[in-house]
Design goal:
Strand order of the largest sheet: 1-2-3-4-5-6-7-10
Shape: globular
Strand content: 5-15%
Distance between the termini: 40 Å
Largest sheet: 8 strands, parallel, barrel
Structural class: alpha/beta
Number of helices: 13
Order of helices and strands: EHEHHEHHHEHEHEHHEEEHEHH
Length: 352
């Protein structure tokens, strides 16, 4: 058993052009004021991190970490979710996902993919220079438009999509091995890796690469009606990162998992601030602690109702209240009568 670190906050949902969310010093001071001791950094946001420089300069990374430390904040991980998304994009989403990439590659899917691969590799190098051991990412998606088999999927379509997905990611995973950093794919609807079965399809094709890990976020499992507790048992050895995010699923006679194209506030399944949803976080933290997860509990705030700054402040205390400080002794040690081999043999009736 190990004690989970935290609380930490994923900064992506808070970054803006307004103070205190517009530069590294200000946002780390604000996070500390909310009660956090760590932050997860979106590697695409130049307001906080110069990714190119971080990938090549340890001095820059030392300064980056040092400025955060002055505010009582540890850098927990980098995120390359947006760049990872662009490693594999189905043409149906070309226009929508162009906004994630540099303007110079808009309208050019091949150049955009090459840009994305380079970006993820830069994020891996930056993680190494920052002394981090894990990078969060999305897998991207080629098969997702065909997730519901109507019309019937042609034989081999999904297999071909996963073959190609693995072909694109394998060199990046090998780069991750060189950097000594795990790539933790967030298991997420909209990605080809959206549940355990699809993750295993990918693992098989990358030969169970040691650097292919999971970013565990129970909220995405609630909205898929998936057992998020047994998922921890199934993938204990592959869980490398943890997003603490809540959700609720309240199906009606009018809508269920797919949400009827309704806005988030009117969906049967919606994300909520910590403690306002249905995730059993006592069970989640207990399971992660028992299985020896010693990474960070990172709040990813998303809520259809509550103001983000209120959710952030409440989230820090929520995580603090759920982290289990692992005991160094058994609860019944007070009743230990002592024993040796001779006494044990006598208790078992082996000596009469």
């Amino acid at each position: 058993m190990k004690t989970i670190k935290g609380p930490a906050l994923f900064l992506a949902q808070f970054a803006s052009d307004e103070a205190p969310f517009n530069d590294w010093d200000s946002i780390t001071k604000w996070a500390a004021d909310c009660g956090y001791v760590g932050v997860q950094v979106p590697s695409w946001d130049a307001r906080f991190l110069d990714l190119e420089t971080a990938a090549t300069s340890r001095d820059y990374c030392d300064s980056f970490k040092g400025r955060a430390a002055e505010n009582g904040i540890t850098v927990t991980e980098l995120s390359a979710h947006l760049q990872g998304q662009l490693v594999a994009v189905h043409p149906a989403y070309d226009v929508a996902f162009d906004g994630f990439a540099a303007p110079s590659v808009h309208g050019n899917p091949k150049a955009r993919q090459e840009w994305a691969v380079r970006q993820v590799k830069l994020a891996l190098d930056a993680s190494r220079n920052l002394g981090l051991s894990a990078l969060g990412a999305f897998s991207g998606a080629l098969a997702w438009p065909y997730v519901y088999p109507w019309p019937q999927r042609p034989e081999g379509l999904v297999e071909m999509a996963f073959d190609e997905l693995a072909t694109r990611w394998r060199p990046i995973l090998d780069h991750a091995e060189e950097a000594g950093v795990d790539i933790c794919y967030e298991i997420h609807p909209g990605e080809d890796l959206h549940d355990g079965a699809s993750f295993e399809m990918f693992l098989d094709r990358v030969e169970h690469h040691a650097r292919a890990k999971m970013l565990y976020d129970p909220s995405h499992y609630v909205l898929q009606c998936l057992d998020y507790i047994s998922n921890l048992d199934d993938y204990a050895e592959r869980i490398g990162m943890f997003h603490v995010k809540d959700a609720e699923f309240n199906p009606t006679g009018k809508q269920g998992v797919y949400g009827g194209f309704q806005p988030w506030a009117q969906r049967a399944g919606r994300f909520r601030s910590l403690g306002d949803g249905q995730v059993d976080f006592k069970a989640v933290f207990s399971k992660l602690t028992t299985m020896g997860f010693d990474g960070w509990a990172v709040v990813e705030w998303e809520c259809a109702l509550k103001h983000p700054e209120d959710g952030a402040r409440e989230g820090a205390q929520f995580v603090r209240d759920h982290i289990i400080r692992v005991t160094d002794r058994a609860f019944d040690d007070f009743a230990d009568g002592g024993a040796d081999d001779a006494a044990n043999r006598k208790m078992l009736g082996l000596e009469r």
